[in-house]
Design brief:
This protein has 390 residues and is an alpha+beta fold. It contains 14 helices and 12 strands.
Length: 390
């Protein structure tokens, strides 16, 4: 009824020139386009508007949005490109960014995702205060991350979402998906309490989102892992001693000192390295980070979380393997609801700082081909010393 009233008012306006008729058709198309689902009426009016006035950028963008709702992504992309041929504008750029990353052959996915990020950045360059463009960029980084598994994409995602939330134009601070997606990023970073807080914000805006399920999963994951580490994964006696025996007593890395878990300081330990034995892989719903329960020479256990690697690394690293961690970063993982459940976690952001049984990780284990060539390669000498090949 409301749309019908708008169309009647538009019909009362002057429609003598082609430009006036085009604008009239555009307004009618926009009215029908305000509905959440695709309508043939919107497509018809907007198509008419473009035929009458090809330079009408707004009509191109609205028609592209209608095709998006229709799930005709090729036609949607053609419309946004048509708008950009008339005039470069932020709406067309960011909407085309969405289309490109969602439409195309699988073997072009990486290049399409790269182009999607470039288009979103172009939109931001036209209006740096526009929250919607920042939000689209954040989503582009997020989708790229699921292809590269690179933390640089997670960092880009977080920065874009933060800008989207704080923007003064078309702020995204009321978008539940922003908080939900950002909570996912915090979860990948194992910043569990921030993830929980984000999921709570998301479901406060949209109770239909599965945020509570995510919160429950995090609580279960942290409490279970804390218990496994505290109880040494249930390993006792001779089996524990046998595991500890494979860890070399004497090893060295140039310009670095060997430490055990209890000697690490919270945060970065840039002048130290840690040696341990793999006790068990850590099972988690998501593929990032790749984690293992590890034991040091003193039989103290911790979680080792490795970023910028592919999930198949779990198949390469086996129980009983000796792992060398250069520049370990130590933190304590917990959640507010179960503060007594805490476990130590050593994080490795750059996989070149990991060596397994004296060998660098294979190149195919790295998350992205652009990672630098140097690797942290080690080998035991006859005297039991560990050498660094760099």
């Amino acid at each position: 009824k409301f749309i019908s009233q708008i169309c009647k008012k538009v019909d009362l306006m002057d429609q003598k020139t082609a430009a006036q008729k085009a604008m009239s058709a555009c307004w009618k198309g926009r009215a029908y386009g305000s509905l959440p689902e695709y309508t043939a009426e919107a497509e018809e009016h907007l198509t008419k508007a473009i035929k009458l006035e090809p330079g009408l950028v707004e009509a191109w963008n609205c028609l592209g949005t209608e095709y998006w709702k229709k799930k005709d992504l090729k036609a949607a992309g053609d419309c946004f490109r048509g708008a950009l041929e008339q005039k470069e504008n932020k709406v067309s750029l960011r909407k085309l960014s969405m289309v490109i990353r969602n439409f195309g052959e699988e073997d072009t996915k990486r290049s399409r995702l790269s182009e999607s990020i470039k288009l979103a950045k172009k939109a931001i360059a036209l209006d740096v205060k526009d929250g919607e463009s920042w939000y689209i960029l954040g989503n582009a980084y997020m989708m790229t991350f699921f292809t590269t598994f690179a933390t640089s994409d997670l960092e880009g995602c977080l920065k874009a979402y933060e800008a989207a939330e704080k923007s003064t134009v078309d702020s995204a601070n009321k978008k539940p998906d922003l908080y939900y997606n950002r909570a996912n990023v915090y979860k990948y970073y194992e910043n569990f309490q921030k993830a929980i807080d984000g999921y709570k914000k998301a479901i406060a805006l949209d109770p239909q989102l599965p945020g509570q399920d995510q919160i429950d999963n995090i609580n279960r994951f942290v409490t279970k892992l804390a218990k496994l580490v505290a109880t040494r994964n249930g390993i006792k006696g001779k089996k524990l001693a046998k595991l500890a025996s494979v860890i070399p007593d004497n090893c060295q890395i140039k310009n670095s000192r060997r430490v055990e878990l209890n000697e690490l300081e919270n945060g970065g330990n840039s002048d130290s390295f840690l040696v341990g034995v793999i006790v068990s892989p850590v099972t988690r719903p998501e593929s990032v980070p790749v984690s293992f329960i590890v034991m040091d020479k003193n039989a103290n256990m911790f979680v080792l979380s490795i970023y910028d690697v592919v999930s198949s690394l779990r198949e390469y690293i086996k129980i009983g393997d000796v792992v060398y961690v250069n520049r370990p970063n130590l933190s304590r993982k917990s959640v507010n609801e179960f503060k007594e459940r805490v476990y130590p976690c050593v994080t490795v952001s750059n996989p070149v700082n990991i060596s397994v049984n004296g060998n660098a990780l294979p190149k195919e284990a790295f998350a992205k081909p652009s990672v630098r060539v140097e690797t942290f390669s080690t080998a035991l000498t006859k005297e039991g010393k560990l050498t660094n090949s760099n």
